[in-house]
Amino acid sequence: MSITVKLDLPAEVAEKVRAAGLLEPQRLSQMLAEELRRYQERAELQKSVHRARECPGEPMDAGEIESEIKAVRAGRRRQRESGN
After folding, report:
1. Where are the alpha helices (DSSP H) in the chain?
2. pLDDT the model gives residue 52
3. In contact, 35 and 42? CB cutoff 8 Å
4. Is the pLDDT of residue 48 over 80?
5. Is residue 3 situated within a structural domain?
6. I need a surface site. Which of 6, 36, 49, 68 has the fewest CB within 10 A?
7. Predicted local distance difference test score (pLDDT) of residue 61
8. Which residues contact 7 (CB under 8 A, 6 or more apart)?
9. Domain-located, residue 6
10. 70 — pLDDT class (breaks 50, 70, 90)
11. Number of domains in the chain
């Protein structure tokens, strides 16, 4: 698929981005793909934060989180060692 994009940039900015090769179709495509990825990651993070805030109870403190992480790691280590 191909689309045409028209940009209205100040002359100084246009000269600099052209000189840097940022107006080349391949580079524009790459920049837009990177920005789309960041946009989607921000949206997913916002959803995760919203879900976390909906959880009942009090938030865990750093010590509780660390204890949970250690417990999960120990469980995984036991599974690896037992061959499962």
Report:
1. 11-19, 25-54, 62-82
2. 87
3. no
4. yes
5. no
6. 6
7. 93
8. 14, 23
9. no
10. very high
11. 1
